[in-house]
Structures are given as C-alpha cells and as structure tokens.
Design a protein that fits this description.
10-stranded mixed β-sheet, 3-stranded antiparallel β-sheet, 19 strands, 40% helix, 12% strand, globular
C-alpha cells in the first residue's frame, strides 16, 4: 500500500518542482515570511497574502507548448529516477523493532500455509454442490465456470441492491467498478442508486466487516464466493428468474461456510495436500531460526487440528509441534480475542477427540481447542507489545489484538508481490508519471477561461481519464488494485494501515531481516506539507 503511494509521491515531488518554476497560475498565494523581532529576539510569522486579479493572456499554442515541455520533463528528468520496489520486502505502517519481540504468534491458513489456486476452484465447486443439493438451486449452475481473475479481495457487496463494488477510504464508490453479476453499471446508474457516489456510515460494514447494507469480502476464501455470487446473479438475470439479492447473498455465504464447517473442504485438501499447498523449506527455516534465537512461538487458527496436522507435516515436518509453546485450533476468531467465557479444551491427538478436564496450564506438545485470549494471557503472561502476531485476515486476525490487547501485528497479503511486480513495469511507471504530470498541468492552467484554452483543458481531461483507466486495468480489468482507487487508498488499505504494524506478501520474507531489525514507516507528506526526499537533488 505505502509502496504504491510512495512511488506516486516520488513522482509528484519532481513534477511539483517543475511546475512551481513554470506555472502561469493567475491566482497565487505568497508564502509565509519569517520576520525577526529585533527588540525581543523572538520570531513571529506574518502571513502576507497577495492575490493577483489579472491573468496573463495565453493562447492555445502556449498551452500545448507547456504540455510538450511537461512530457519532455517526465521522460528525461523524472522517469530515470523512478526506482523499483522490492516485491518481497516487509513494509511498515508503524515503527517496530524486532529486538522488542519475545513471542511470535501465527495463523495457519494463508500465513504458515500457502495454497495453490486449486483450492479456490475446489471451494467454488463444493459451494455449487451445496446450493444444488441442499438449497435446490437450478442444476444448470453446475456448469458456471470459475474465473480466477474476476474479483479482488476487499470489495463490498450491497446485499439490498445486489451490487459488487470497490469503495475508497473515504466511503466513496470508485466509478467503473460496480457490477451486477458480470455486467458493469454505468456511472449514471450508480449515481442514481446512491444519490451520488458516497456511502453513508450507517450503511457501511461493522467493525469486523459484516453488518449493515454493505458486506466487505476480506479474506482470500471470499474470492471464489464473489465469483459465484456474480455468476449466479448473471445467470438469474439472463434466465429472467426473479430473486431477492439479500436472500441470494445469504444462501451463497451460508453455503461457503458449510463447505468449511462440514469438513468437506478439509477432507479433500487433507487427502491431496501436495496438490493444494505449496511446498518449500523456508517456513521451517524461519520458525527454527526464531526458536534458536530464544523466541517463543504459538499458533492460533480457526482450522481443525486434523487439517492443520497434515499441512504442517508437509510444510515443516513431523516434529512441528515441538516448535510451538502453545497450539490452539478451532479458535473461532475473532471471538477468541473478545469472548472471555469459552474455556480451552485439550485435544487427544491419538483418539482424535476433545478431553473433558479443565485446562489450568498449557503443556508443550499438546493441542488445545477453542479458548480465549484472556485465559491465554493468564496462563502464559504473554501480553502487550512483546507479542507479534501474523495473520491474513485484517479483521479476524489483527483488529482485536491490535486495538484491544496492544499486540504488534503483521498482515500477510499474498497479492502484494504481484501488485508490486506490476507497479515495477516500465508501462506502469510511464503511465503514472505522465498521469501525475498531466494532472498538475491541468490544475495549474485551468484558470484560463477563453474558449480555446478551455477546449485544450477538456482534451487533457479526456486523456487523464484514459490514463487513470489504463493504470487501473493493469492490475485487474474490472476492479483494479487491491490497495488504491484512482487516487485514494481503498477501504481495504485504510483498515490494513490501522490494524497492521507490518505487512508483506509471505511470512518467509522475514528471513531477509536480522533479529534486531527495526522497521520504520515512510514519512508520507500530508497535502499541506513539503515533501522531503534526500534521493533527489534539490536543484535537479
């Protein structure tokens, strides 16, 4: 997220220097002047505002000359300084030193275990089976194909209108990303539905992404869910089958949960672990290195022990339990972090059943079910900023530990690596560099109100719109980047920056850093601030 924002900011600072020297803005605001009071020796600030009331007359040819100058400036001065970003880096929203971390906690799915795309095909198929067999949906939906690149994580679904969309950090809908089924809505239709593009707070999702009219689809398992939702809506629309979008969402969402809770998905994956999980020695290397440095490890996952065991045996080896001080399965996150009334139960790994006696303390090498964070804290003493917990779900894994309990948190965002690779491409760099430059040019020159000048500005605005669409579609042709709308961070980015101190594409990226490494967030300039970046010479 911040990598994309910082790249755009680096481009902006170069362009701002250029335009500050070449702008013909008619309405200017003089900078504050610092004056010294000779009598008291103190400094005072006097704000002298001088407004120009007349415009320097320029014509169409002058504007196009500025356009060509800006284009040359981008190509010759800015693009050579736009550096690539390491796609396997760890990025910081908040300063954190690993030397302060004594306890490392992990989720299982999409954190320690990384799945192949086959898992999404499986969830999609199993969900269709539930809908046909148990919900009596038309058997024809069995033929609806899965499109792995249809949606991106973090989208919102309006359960009352049956619309899938991307929302930014200010609750505004990104036009061009609103779909009913597989069909895009026009900007006019969207504005009519929502009386503009803003979503009131009362209609947004609750703290954990659910509730109200809009549901945010936040985890990676939701990608096949969104695709099936869109396919069935499209099917019903084309077949003229009347439906209530709220009931439809409820049926599909319940069917997806059934695939998980019934064990159907877990059994299939457990019988073919090598097909559904990616293999590699890096996870084992990371965990063993942490243990070797005296760090304590724990695992808290919503998945069942039998499912976790088969995966961990493949990922780490049969001795994987020896690496963890505490292992908790069937944890029911996010309730695990907030509900203090559900006790831990020990799980008998040989009988594959829970035991009945009360748990007073944890024993290494044993497995526990359910429980809650309050009891975990009482029995271990682990609390506060000495704990760093990693998970892939921004709400279920990270929100409560961060806000309620003071843990440090890390988000695993598998899509990040692909997005950064796209961002590093020459095509994307050229597009964004020129988009920022052209927008600055429009902002500076829009005050020329002659018909010929305004016609030029309109041409530039059309080009700007084409550039914005191009920059969006390189990530996903329908919904764009996971992290950004045209300009603003997405709602997903907003929650990520609030609930995650660190984020990276894969847990094994921590191997690139020493145990005492300190991660520093970038100082991103606010709109009213000057942007300082030592990598660019001031007089460039």
């Amino acid at each position: 997220m911040k990598t994309i924002m910082a790249a755009t900011m680096n481009i902006s600072v170069q362009l701002c220097r250029h335009f500050s020297r070449n702008s013909s803005r008619c309405l200017t605001f003089m900078q504050h002047r610092l004056c010294r009071n000779a009598d008291s020796g103190t400094q005072s600030h006097q704000c002298n505002r001088t407004y120009q009331t007349g415009a320097h007359e320029i014509g169409e040819s002058d504007l196009w000359k500025k356009y060509q100058d800006a284009k040359s400036w981008c190509d010759e001065k800015v693009l050579p300084h736009v550096h690539s970003v390491n796609p396997t880096a760890v990025f910081a929203n908040n300063e954190i030193s690993l030397s302060d971390i004594d306890i490392y906690g992990f989720d299982y799915d999409y954190t320690l275990a990384t799945y192949t795309e086959d898992l999404h095909y499986l969830i999609y198929k199993l969900t269709k089976d539930v809908l046909i067999k148990l919900k009596k949906y038309p058997e024809d939906i069995a033929d609806l194909p899965y499109q792995p690149d249809f949606a991106v994580r973090g989208l919102h679904y309006d359960v009352t209108k049956g619309l899938l969309m991307k929302v930014d950090s200010f609750h505004y809908i990104q036009l061009g990303t609103v779909y009913r089924g597989l069909t895009a809505l026009s900007d006019e239709e969207v504005k009519k539905f929502y009386h503009g593009t803003h979503i009131p707070l009362s209609q947004m999702n609750s703290f954990h992404g659910s509730g109200a009219n809009l549901r945010q689809m936040m985890d990676l398992f939701s990608i096949p869910e969104m695709t099936l939702l869109a396919n069935i809506i499209e099917y019903f629309s084309k077949k003229n089958i009347p439906y209530d979008p709220e009931y439809l969402f409820g049926d599909i969402h319940d069917a997806v949960k059934s695939v998980h809770y019934s064990g159907a998905m877990h059994r299939t994956v457990g019988d073919a672990v090598a097909k559904y999980l990616t293999s590699g020695k890096e996870v084992s290397e990371l965990l063993r290195r942490l243990v070797g440095m005296g760090k304590k490890l724990f695992l808290v996952t919503n998945s069942a022990y039998g499912f976790v065991e088969k995966g961990m045996n493949m990922i780490i080896g049969p001795d994987w339990l020896d690496l963890f001080e505490v292992v908790v399965t069937n944890a029911r996150k996010p309730h695990f972090f907030s509900d203090s009334h559900r006790p831990f139960r020990q799980f008998d790994r040989h009988k594959k059943s829970p035991q009945w006696q009360k748990v007073f303390q944890f024993q290494k090498g044993q497995v526990y079910l359910e429980g809650n964070l309050e009891q975990l804290h009482k029995m271990t003493g682990w609390a506060g900023s000495s704990v760093l917990y990693f998970g892939d779900h921004v709400y279920s894994d990270l929100a409560d530990p961060c806000l309620r309990h003071g843990w440090r948190t890390g988000a695993i965002i598998p899509e990040l690596e692909s997005e950064i690779n796209t961002m590093n491409s020459s095509e994307f760099k050229e597009t964004i560099t020129w988009l920022v430059s052209l927008q600055n040019l429009i902002e500076n020159e829009q005050i020329h109100d002659s018909p010929e000048c305004q016609a030029v500005i309109q041409e530039w605005l059309k080009e700007r719109n084409c550039l914005r669409v191009k920059a969006k579609e390189v990530f996903n042709p329908r919904f764009g980047s996971l992290f950004r709308t045209y300009h603003n961070p997405t709602y997903f980015s907003r929650r990520l920056s609030r609930f995650a101190d660190l984020y990276t594409s894969d847990i094994v990226n921590l191997l690139n850093y020493p145990a005492n490494f300190t991660f520093y967030p970038r100082r991103s300039a606010l709109p009213h601030e000057m942007y300082y970046n030592a990598s660019y010479p001031v007089n460039n």
